[in-house]
Amino acid sequence: MGKARHAAKLSLALIPKTKLRSHAASPSTQPPSAHPPANPTKPGKNPHGSSKNFTAVAPVAAVHEERKPIRTPADLAAAIRAAADADIDAAAALALSAPPDVPLPTHSLALLLRRLFTTRSVAAARSLLDKLHPSGEDGCPRPNPAPRGALLALADAVCRRGEPREISRVLPVLRDHGVRADAHLYNALMKANVAADDPGAVLRVFRQMRSDGVDPDLVTYNTLIFGLARAGMVAKARAFLDAMAAEGHLPDVVTYTSLMNGMCVKGDALGALKLLEEMQGKGCQPNERTYSTLLMGLCKNKKLDKAVEVYKSMAAAGTKLESPAYASFVRALCRSGSVADAYEVFDYAIQTKSFAEVTAYSELENSLKWLRRMSS
Questions:
Q1: Which of 144, 158, 152, 154 is nearest to 104 (CA)?
Q2: How far apart, in whole angstroms, are the C-alpha atoms of residue 226 and residue 275?
Q3: I need a surface site. Which of 176, 201, 252, 329 has the fewest CB within 10 A?
Q4: What are phi and psi of 180, to 5 degrees?
Q5: Which stretches of sequence are listed as region Disordered (predicted)?
Q6: Largest Cα–Cα distance in the chain?
Q7: Which DSSP category does 38 fall into?
């Protein structure tokens, strides 16, 4: 018996005490897990030994969020707005799959059309319109055309982009839905063609505007005259200036200055000077751009005496020049030997704070150095 009790004590002593404490401390009756959980007191410790912050996330069952049913136009608008930022195709699918008794709000359609254009093209926006508002049979008008507000929103986005091809493609879209393009759209198309140096396209747009029954406005004529004059088509630009006045659109300072610039580029600086007199005679006062354009043109065409006269009248009116015009004028005066006049222009530029003194002084100094080298 003594040996048995001694053997029992010895067997108990061989049991690891740590396991007894760990098992005894567990409130559960289940045996301890073979993979103990991560230490809850150190949530930032990476279990793989990395020093980077790491938060263990327990695996959870996948929960499929149920989409809110679309019962009203407000529900449809909210769903489209939420989906449009992430996936424009999903947003368009919501519009196409909406219940028949839930109309698509105009502002939601406008959002879809703008996003389709900005991310893709006018053709993509037109494709959605054809699905939402199909055309009539046998060439008949659409029984349910798209709302005017959404179409004009698309046209505005296209005009802001300024691509001639895309602007020309949006015109038939408007026409198909019974919306006539306005002067703003045609003006944008003309400006885009002016930027592309295509005066022929500018004229075609103007003629199309007329044939579509849209009256040109002051912006139309200014854009047309600027594009033609810049391309060297001065005579045609002058003809449109006379035509616009006959139609009741009085030429403004932009109109005259654009034509002056074209005349100076063509070498007709004296004709531009006469246009200045005509402009002032009709009560239209020149601005900085007008005087700068004319002075630079006179200097380039070696009409320095006329340039000095224009400068004196400009200074008497208290008008300034643009920085490039000051530089050209000072350089021309110095090269002609009129150093006193050059200093007078220099002083006026400083007094009127037309540009930084360092810039004006550097230009004058360089011109004087050139004059000294030429006279030596």
A1: 144
A2: 15
A3: 252
A4: -85, 130
A5: 1-53
A6: 139
A7: P
Backbone angles phi, psi at 13, to 5 degrees: -70, -25
For residue 318, the 8-state DSSP code is: T
Q: Round to whole Å and give the CA distance between 351 and 339.
A: 18
Token duo for residue 41: 């007191």
C-alpha 277/C-alpha 285 separation (Å) is 10
Which residues are CB-contacts of 69 (< 8 A; sequence separation ≥ 6)? 75
Cβ neighbors of 321 (< 8 A, separation 6 or more) are 288, 291, 292, 295, 314, 329, 349, 354
Rounded Cα distance between 109 and 150, Å, is: 6
Q: Phi, psi at residue 37, to the nearest 5°?
A: -70, 160
30-74 residue pLDDT tens = 444 444 444 444 444 444 444 444 333 434 433 344 567 888 999
- What type of residue sits at position 36? P
What letter represents residue 160's amino acid?
R
Distance CA 183, CA 206 (A): 10
Phi first, then psi: give them for residue 209, nearest 5 degrees.
-60, -45
The pair of structure tokens assigned to 326 is 């000051």
Cβ(326)–Cβ(363) under 8 Å? yes
Residue 223: Cβ within 10 Å count:
24
Question: Contact at 8 Å (CB) between 122 and 169?
Answer: yes
pTM of the model: 0.69
> How do residues 231-242 score in pLDDT, each as one tens digit?
999 999 999 999
Q: DSSP code of 139?
A: G
